[in-house]
Amino acid sequence: MKSNQDTQAVKPFSMLTDFDISLYQGGKHFLLHHKMGSHVVEVDGERGVCFSVWAPHAKRVSVTGDFNKWNPDAHVLLPRWDKSGIWEGFISGLDKGTVYKYHIKTHDGFGLDKGDPFALKWETPPRTASVVWDLEYKWNDEKWMKARKERAGKPQPWSVYEVHPGSWKKIPEDGNRSYNYRELADELVPYVKEMGFTHIEFMPVMEHPYFPSWGYQVTGYFAPTSRSGDPQDLMYLIDTCHREGIGVILDWVPSHFPGDIHGLYLFDGTHIYEYSDMRRGYHPDWNSYVFDYGRNEVRSFLISNALFWLEYYHVDGLRVDAVASMLYHDYSRKEGEWIPNIYGGRENLEAISFLKDFNEAVYKTYPGVETIAEESTAFPAVTKPTVEGGLGFGQKWMMGWMHDTLDYFKRPPIFRRWHQNEITFSMVYAFSEKFMLPLSHDEVVHMKASLLYKMPGDEWQKFANLRALFGHQWTHPGSQILFMGGEFGQTSEWSHDLGVAWQLLQYDYHKGVQTWVKALNDLYVSRKALWYNAFSPAGYEWISGDDTENCVLAYLRKGEPGDKVLLVVCHFNTNAINEYSVGVPYGGTWKEVLNSDDKQFGGSGVVNGDLKAKKTPSHGHEQSITFKLPPLCVMIFEGDDVPKSKVKVEKKSAAPTATKAKPKPRTKKS
Predict the structure, then answer these.
(1) 562: confidence class by pLDDT, cuts 50, 70, 90
(2) C-alpha 60: how far from its chain's center?
(3) Between these two residues, 201 and 6, which has the higher pLDDT value?
(4) Adjacent-strand bridge partners of 390
(5) What is the mean pLDDT of the chain?
(6) Closest by alpha carbon to 549, among 516, 577, 514, 518?
(7) pLDDT tens, position by position, 594-613
(8) pLDDT tens digits, residue range 368-383?
(9) Burial (CB count <10 Å: 0-12, 13-18, 19+), residue 324
(10) N or C end: fewer C-beta atoms under 10 angstroms in the chain?
(11) What count of other Cβ atoms lies within 10 Å of the Cβ of residue 576?
C-alpha cells in the first residue's frame, strides 16, 4: 500500500464549472468532450494531464499506466464535492501519448480496470488501454464547409457508397493487411470520385475490440480505431474527401454496446450507462447492452459524442444504427421478456425523447449536416421535424423497398407477372418519409448471397438483372446507397477478412456493371429531375405500372418547372419487343440518355437513340413514343426543354397494381 503522500501526486484541478454539472445532470450538456476525459493542460506552470471520469458508485478511482507501473494506489483521483459522481484531478509530467486506465474500486471490494469513456485514442486491439491525445489538425476544406452550410435545407443529390474501411482493400504482400486511413485517402477517394458517388458512408470507425463485429460493438465512442491509424489520419481522409467534393457519413451506434470488461458495462461496478433491469438493458440479438436513455448523464454523453464527430472530424452526416431496437421495448423479445412503458405500451418513450433531443442538437448546431435512421418498422414521422411531432431525422432507410424489390428480382422472370405489386407497392408510401433506398452490407452476408447471385437466370441474365435493379434504384424517388463490391457485381458474399474481389474487373460483364453504375451516378448528379424533388410527389408521375404480362414500368421524374423531364422505362422480363409504346406528356424529341442494354454495359446492344413523339394517344397522354424494348433493361429518355407554363406538376403516386397492405418489414438486424 502506497503512503498518503504518494496519493497526493494527483493535484486538485477541474475543468468543469458548476454550470457544466447542472447541464450534465439535466441531460443538456452536449460538449462534455471539452471537459471530461483526459486533457493536456498547464497548471501553475506545470504541464500535465487533467483527468475526469463519471463513476458515481465507486469507492475509489485512480489512474494507472506505464508511468506508475499500473499501481492503483499511486494516483488517486478526487471526488467532486457536489455529489455529481465525477472523479477528477491533475497529474503533472504526463503528456500526449500516455497510456492509461481508470482503476475503479467498487463498494463490493472488487477492482475494475476501465478504459476512459471519453478517450480520444485507444491502444490497437487486442490491447485495451486509453491513450492521452490531442485533436490538432490543419484542415483544408474551408470551401466545402462553407458550401455545406449554404446548402442547408436545400435539395441536393445523395448517392452514397457504403464502405467497411477494414476490408475495402487488402495488401496481400503485407499479410493481407487492411488499408490504413491515409492509404484509403490515396485510393478510395479518387475511386469514389471517378465513380460519381456524392458521399461515402463509413461503417463504424469508432474503436471496437472485435474486428468481425464490423465496428458495431463500440468501446471507444470518441476515438477512431487505431487499427487504421491515429485520429489525425482519419481527419486527413475526411479532409481529402471534402477537397474532392465528396461528403462523409459515419455510422453511429447509440443503440447498444458490448460487455467487454474494459468498456462501459458495469462501469463502476453498477449499471450506470445501461438499464439496470436486463429486460430493458440487455439486447438478445447482439449479446450487448442497451443505454439507459432515461438517465440524463447518459443522454449528455451520447449527444456530446454525436456532436464531437461533427465538430472535430467535420463529418457531414450520421447514419444511426438499429433505431427500431431503440424505439420498442419488445424488439426481438418474447412475451414476458420486456417491460411496458408507463402507459402500458411497447414504445420506449425515453429513447424517443432522446432521439428528438439528438436531432435537434445536430441540426441547430451544424446546419447542412444530415442524420439518417436505419429504422425497419412503420414507426410514424421518423423524418418529420420535432416541432411537428416527428423524430427529426433527415432521411430514413427504406427497408420495405429493399425487401420487396429483392424478393421481386429473385424470382425467375416467368413468375414476375404475378408479383408486379412487389415492385410497384413502394410508390404507395414513397413520400410518407424522406427515404434512402439501401442495398447495404446486411444484404450480402450470412448466406444471403451477393447481389449478383440473388439474380435468376444464366450468366448474361444475372448481369442484366443486376443492371436493371440498379437502374430502378437510381430512378426511384428518394436517395440511394450501395455497398462496396456491388457496383461491379461481386460474386461472393462480403468477407471482412478477404475484402472486395477487385480481380473480377478483368472480366467484361463485371466491368460493364461498374461502367453502368458510373453512368447512373453521372446522370443522377447532372439531372435535377432525379434529385430535386426526391422526397416530393411533385417529382414523380406514373405513366404505366399495369403491364404485368411484359413486366414493364414507365414513369416520369421531374425537377423544377422548366427542367427537362426524364422518362424511365423498366422491363423486367426476358422477352424482347420490337415496338413498344408509352404515352409522353409533350411532343418533340425524346433522347435516349441511358440504356442498360448498351454493349458498353455488357448488354446485347439494342438501343434506340433519339425518338420523335407522335400524336398517338396513350396512357392518358395525347402523344406517345415507340421504341425497341430489350430484355431485362432500364432505359431513360430525356424530353426537350418545355415552357414553364406547360409543365404539369402531378401528385399521382400510386401504381395501378399496388393493392396489398403496407408491410411491416423484418425488425431483426442482420
Answers:
(1) confident
(2) 39
(3) 201
(4) none
(5) 94
(6) 577
(7) 999 999 999 999 999 999 99
(8) 999 999 999 999 999 9
(9) buried
(10) N
(11) 16
Which residue intervals of the chain bear CATH 3.20.20.80?
A: 159-256+289-323+383-530
Nearest to 357 by CA among 287, 409, 307, 285: 307
Superfamily of domain 4-131: Immunoglobulins (2.60.40.10)
Could you please state the CATH topology (level 3) that the domain comprising 159-256+289-323+383-530 is classified under: TIM Barrel (3.20.20)
Containing 81, the helix (H) or strand (E) segment is none
Torsion, CA 522, CA 525, CA 526, CA 532, rounded to 10: 150
Show the cell assigned to 558.
421531374
Label residue 352 by pLDDT band (50, 70, 90): very high
Report the C-alpha gap between 97 and 119 in whole angstroms.
Answer: 12
Strands across the sheet containing 610-612: 540-547, 552-557, 566-571, 633-639, 589-595, 610-612
Active site residues: 321, 374
Judged against a pLDDT cut of 80, whether residue 3 lies above it is answered with no
98 vs 129: CA distance, rounded Å: 10
CA gap 507, 501 in Å, rounded? 12
Q: Phi and psi of 111, rounded to 5°?
A: -110, 125
Residue type for 448, please?
K
**Residue 263 contacts residue 332 (beta carbons within 8 Å):** no
Mean pLDDT of 27-50: 96
Task: Determine the length of the chain.
Answer: 670
CA distance 288 to 182: 32
The position carrying cell 456493371 is: 513
d(CA 445, CA 426): 24
Indicate the helix (H) or strand (E) that contains 350: helix 349-365
CA distance 291 to 282: 9
Kindly tell me the burial class for residue 447, based on how many C-beta atoms sit within 10 Å of its own C-beta (0-12, 13-18, 19 or more): exposed
Instruction: Kindly tell me the sign of the dihedral angle through the C-alpha atoms of 347, 348, 351, 353.
Output: positive
> Average pLDDT of 415-444?
97
Provide mean pLDDT across the span 506-511.
Answer: 98
DSSP state letters, 236-271:
HHHHHHHHTT-EEEEEE--S-B---TTSSTTTTSS-
Share of the chain above pLDDT 70, in %: 94
DSSP letters, 178-200, are: EP-HHHHHHHHHHHHHHHT-SEE
- Give CA–CA dist 123/207, Å, rounded: 9
Select from 328, 438, 448 the least CA-distant residue to 378.
Answer: 328
Domain ranges in the chain with CATH number 2.60.40.10? 4-131
* Phi, psi (degrees; rounded to nearest 5) at 94: -90, 160
- Nearest alpha-carbon partner for 259 in 109, 112, 479: 112
* CB burial string 232-263: b at 16+ within 10 A, e below: bbbbbbbbbbbbeebbbbbbbbbbbbbebebb
| Cα gap 346→323, rounded to integer Å | 14
pLDDT band, very low/low/confident/very high, at 641 (cuts 50, 70, 90): low
**Mean pLDDT of the 166-181 span:** 94
The C-alpha atoms of residue 251 and residue 266 are separated, in whole angstroms, by 25
pLDDT given at position 640: 84
The Cα–Cα gap between 53 and 636 comes to 58
Q: Residue 656: what pLDDT?
A: 46
Angle at 527 between CA 435 and CA 310, to 5 degrees: 50
Q: Tell me if 177 sits within 8 A of 170, measured CB to CB.
A: yes
Instruction: Map grid coordinates 421531374 to a residue.
Output: 558
